[in-house]
Write a structure and sequence with these properties.
11 helices, alpha+beta, about 30% helix, globular, about 400 residues, about 35% strand, eight-stranded antiparallel beta sheet
């Protein structure tokens, strides 16, 4: 009797387990997927730590991050998994941070995506030919070769770099340094007539050098003479919050990070953080010692004075009127830049090289009107040959 009465009386609190649709199925949970965010900030000590810590507090692990300084502002490109509602909330909270100028989720818009990876791989006389064939298929570049190792550079979308590493995984991969992905939105109005007339294969265009050596230029931002830029390679376990602890160490000492790149390392579960920061030698040595004491930090190495292969990647969108496009293409050829997208009023190109090359082409293109820039941080791998190319280059210039 009592049971019958209870069953006939509607319950005042709904049972979550009984929340089913008309077909008797439990509603789907919000779909989690990879999101790409652009965060434009003023260059100020601590801003990177505040941005990264916002994700850490919510338990989200950043898959990749790239940040480069341009004219006292920095564009941070972040790749992070999450559902639509959570990412939208993160965007709103990011906009409330001081010195954050703009936050944009560019996941679902047509865009050009690129990242760059340096890989040092062990070789033998028997495997060298096979590796070079893979390099040719993926349009990679050999940066350095010795009797026992080969250092490779590959640029492309994240899928290409992952596939390249997977194909070579049965060879001994000694060191991997990857930037986070950078992205720029495509122009919605593609100028197909310009592409046809100039024979440009979009995203595969690789112009032949005109035989003119790329220009070099100092950093666009002057640095105090007592300080210099240090390149620090930090190998860490891939756990949430590690990036906050690393960047926070620099922030607490009032040092602004010049550039930062984070990507998967040579072994699963590890990431490599490449940091460029100004400072004097004693201060940087102290920072390195403190970094080594952090939990989940495996190795810290200051490779500033060691012969290295250095690379950085920049995507740049330039205003291109019909009368100026030929001039812009000539500059692209000199710097071996690749044309990725052609619009009615713009050209988007990819440039890879050392930071001096980035500064030089940026300076030359400024007169045409730079619309957008996305830069990775600098990555570097130690040269096995121990040859310092800066010394060699300066020696050649002095002879000339």
């Amino acid at each position: 009797m009592t049971m019958a009465a209870e069953s006939s009386t509607p319950s005042s609190t709904p049972n979550p387990a009984n929340k089913m649709d008309v077909f008797g199925a439990v509603p789907r949970q919000p779909k989690t997927r990879q999101h790409v965010l652009h965060v434009l900030v003023d260059d100020e000590a601590g801003i990177l730590t505040r941005v990264v810590s916002l994700f850490s507090r919510r338990g989200y692990n950043i898959d990749s991050l790239a940040v480069g300084l341009t004219n006292e502002r920095a564009l941070i490109t972040i790749s992070v998994p999450g559902d639509e509602n959570t990412i939208r909330l993160l965007q709103q909270q990011l906009m409330r941070l001081i010195n954050v100028l703009k936050v944009e989720d560019i996941t679902d818009v047509p865009k050009v995506e690129r990242e760059i990876m340096l890989m040092k791989i062990g070789i033998t006389p028997e495997t060298k030919t096979e590796i070079l064939e893979v390099v040719d298929i993926f349009r990679a570049k050999v940066c350095e070769i010795s009797d026992e190792t080969m250092t490779l550079e590959i640029t492309g979308d994240p899928g290409k770099t992952v596939a390249f590493q997977k194909v070579l995984q049965h060879h001994p991969i000694l060191t991997v340094a990857r930037t986070g992905r950078v992205a720029l939105m495509r122009d919605s109005n593609v100028d197909t007539e310009f592409i046809r007339r100039h024979g440009i294969a979009v995203e595969l265009f690789d112009p032949v050098s005109l035989g003119i050596a790329p220009l070099t230029a100092p950093s666009l931002v002057a640095k105090p003479t007592r300080d210099r830029l240090h390149t620090i390679s930090i190998l860490v376990e891939d756990v949430p919050g590690i990036l906050v602890r690393v960047t926070g160490l620099f922030s607490r000492r009032g040092y602004g990070i010049e550039s930062l790149a984070v990507g998967p390392a040579e072994r699963k579960g590890l990431s490599r953080i490449s940091v460029v920061v100004p400072g004097d030698d004693p201060t940087i040595n102290l920072m390195n010692a403190q970094l080594e004491r952090l939990i989940n930090v495996i190795a810290v190495e200051d490779i500033t004075d060691v012969p290295t292969v250095q690379r950085e990647l920049m995507l740049i969108k330039v205003t291109a009127e019909p009368k100026t496009r030929t001039d812009i293409l000539q500059i692209a050829k000199v710097f071996r830049a690749k044309i990725l997208d052609v619009g009615e009023g713009s050209l988007t190109m990819e440039v890879t090289g050392d930071p001096g090359k980035m500064a030089a082409i940026q300076q030359l293109l400024r007169k045409f009107g730079i619309m957008e820039i996305a830069r990775t941080g600098k990555i570097a791998i130690v040269r096995e040959s121990k040859v310092n190319t800066n010394v060699v280059t300066s020696g050649v210039q002095s002879i000339v």
